[in-house]
Amino acid sequence: MKRLINGFSMAYTDQGQGKPLLLVHGYPLNRQMWAPQILGLSRVARVIAPDLRGHGDSEAVPGPYSMELFADDLAALLDSLEIQQKVICCGLSMGGYAVFAFQRKYPERIAALILTATRAADDTPQARAARDQAAELARRNQLDQIFEGMLPKLLSEGNYHENPELVEQVRSIMRNTSQEGVLGDLAGLKDRPDSRPSLPDIKVPTLILHGADDRIVPVTEAKEMLVSIPNSQLQIIPAAGHLLNLEQPEIFNRAVIGFLSTLESQPS
Ligand code: MLT
């Protein structure tokens, strides 16, 4: 499905009934990365999974894509779907950064948070330099070089070496990101604000999910968020890396379903 929002055509999946659960993908991915969640969680919730601008089937528009811009796009999609109810926001990695921006701009729209394989800190100088190098490749349209460089880090070592189908699936999802999308993300990622100061302001129930073998965002980042977010809980998923939802979909879905059931008694 597609809707024209904020001046571009946004593709999204809207499946299931019940509490709205917004799934925000990471970089350089799209909503296909949520396939096991769209299937499994739409039995218990209304799953809304957009392709962010420049990704998947959404229109590629020039960047930079700040996390605040992504947050505005998410809010506009909810408006367009006439969802006035509070939503459960789940973001993976860059999707988590966008969820932090959404939480700062639209706190009244949030029922709960699920922070997956993400971090609250902004980029280190080293990370910013790596973004510049990747942007240089993207400008020369050498996107595959970026994707192939990321692939081994996106999965746990075990899954990367022993699950060629999963490796191929992730590769093909990445290849659906446009040049403008990659450039827009890199600029937004590099300049994103430090979300750590706003963590104590998060008052909604928060589930932090992290792969034990995440090679992009170390587990220590998840533990730090747990300490700073008042009403939070952490589940570390074994035999999973950065894309834990694809690597261990049953454990991931069970954790989310358990968390959603704890929200049932709370007003939405
Ligand atoms: C992601 O998975 O969204 C990215 O690895 C985030 C990042 O590079 O900081």
Give the helices and strands as they follow along the chain.
EEEHEHEHEHHHHHEHEHH
Oligomeric state as shown: single chain
Class by SSE composition: alpha/beta
Largest sheet: 8 strands, mixed
Q: Strand arrangement, largest sheet?
A: 1-2-4-3-5-6-7-8
Radius of gyration computed on alpha carbons: 17 Å
Tally the beta strands: 8
Q: Report the β-strand fraction as a percent range.
A: 15-25%
**Alpha plus pi helix count:** 11
- Arithmetic mean pLDDT: 97
Overall shape: it is: globular
The end-to-end distance, rounded to whole angstroms, is: 26 Å
Helix content: 40-55%
Small molecules in complex: D-malate
Low-confidence stretches: none
Summarize this entry quickly.
By secondary structure, the chain is of the alpha/beta class. The chain contains eleven helices and eight strands. The protein has an eight-stranded mixed β-sheet, sandwiched between helices.
Give an overview in words.
- The protein is of the alpha/beta class and 268 residues long.
- The chain has 11 helices and 8 strands.
- It has an 8-stranded mixed β-sheet with strand order 1-2-4-3-5-6-7-8, with helices on both faces.
- Helix 5 (143-154) packs across helix 7.
- 44% of the residues are buried.
- The model has no long low-confidence stretch (mean pLDDT 97).
- It binds D-malate.
- D-malate binds next to loops.
Give the SSE map.
Layout: E1 2-5, E2 8-15, E3 20-24, H1 35-41, E4 46-50, H2 67-80, E5 87-92, H3 94-105, E6 110-116, H4 125-139, H5 143-154, H6 157-162, H7 164-174, H8 179-190, E7 206-211, H9 219-228, E8 232-237, H10 244-247, H11 249-263
Parallel strand pairs: 3-4, 3-5, 5-6, 6-7, 7-8
Antiparallel strand pairs: 1-2, 2-4
Helix pairs in contact: 1-11, 2-3, 4-8, 5-7
Residues 26-27, 93-94, 189, 216, 242 line the site of D-malate.
